[in-house]
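Researcher: Sequence recovery benchmark, item below. Answer with residues only.
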């Protein structure tokens, strides 16, 4: 998948929304499909028919919405069959005035010869002051740093304390959801993970808050895994959606692109 193909998938998605045809809109997505947000309840859409049945254009029309404009679509991470596209769109009234602008990272995947959106990581409205934006960005980055520190310490409880549940992971064209911290810990085996990869620790090569909302921040991270003696295992790219509840920031969702050799 090229960067242009990934961005085209996002443009098709917005164009289909503007048709007000649920079937056409649902056809631009990959399944199972999820849209994690700060208030995400864990709903997974298994197929296009299920998604189309859930769409209610009357809700959007009641706000004065007439159409949506795609303001930006930039590929921030890409790999074999998957790309992360940082997007911004604005809902418009019939006279062209703006209702609000939203920030989403689109996880675009290629499966069975088709390209579509597997998941949408919603950071939220683009309406913060610069001081609030900087504060939220710093809090989100700190949450990711705490997660990586707990991971390297092989501390399962500390790790899930840095996460929000329901928790979503997207990768290799699939989507998985854990309903609780206990469910996540029950299914994770640090010793098995370390033995399988020859892993000793991970390091973040880069970390940047790329989209910042009032209760959601998308953080782009480049991670390298190392074995004993600092031997390089592989590097990979991840987007973490970090969300806030009751003053606590935690990782709601993550989308990882397959590690490079």
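Model:
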């Amino acid at each position: 998948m090229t960067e242009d193909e990934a961005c085209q998938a996002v443009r098709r998605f917005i164009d289909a929304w503007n048709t007000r045809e649920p079937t056409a809109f649902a056809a631009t997505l990959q399944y199972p499909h999820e849209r994690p947000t700060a208030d995400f309840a864990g709903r997974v859409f298994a197929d296009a028919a299920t998604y189309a049945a859930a769409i209610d254009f009357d809700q959007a029309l009641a706000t004065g919405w007439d159409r949506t404009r795609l303001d930006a679509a930039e590929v921030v991470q890409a790999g074999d069959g998957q790309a992360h596209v940082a997007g911004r769109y604005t809902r418009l009234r019939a006279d062209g005035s703006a209702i609000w602008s939203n920030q989403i990272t689109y996880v675009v995947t290629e499966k069975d010869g088709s390209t579509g959106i597997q998941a949408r990581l919603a950071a939220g409205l683009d309406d913060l002051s610069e001081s609030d934006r900087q504060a939220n960005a710093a809090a989100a980055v700190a949450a990711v740093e705490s997660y990586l520190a707990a991971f390297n310490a092989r501390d399962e409880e500390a790790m899930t304390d840095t996460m929000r549940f329901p928790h979503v992971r997207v990768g290799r064209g699939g989507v998985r959801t854990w309903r609780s911290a206990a469910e996540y810990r029950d299914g994770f085996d640090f010793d098995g993970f370390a033995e399988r990869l020859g892993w000793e620790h991970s390091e973040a090569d880069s970390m940047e808050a790329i989209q910042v909302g009032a209760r959601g921040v998308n953080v782009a991270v480049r991670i390298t895994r190392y074995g004993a003696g600092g031997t390089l295992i592989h590097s990979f790219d991840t987007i973490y959606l970090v969300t806030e509840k009751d003053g606590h920031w935690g990782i709601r969702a993550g989308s990882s692109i397959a590690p490079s050799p």
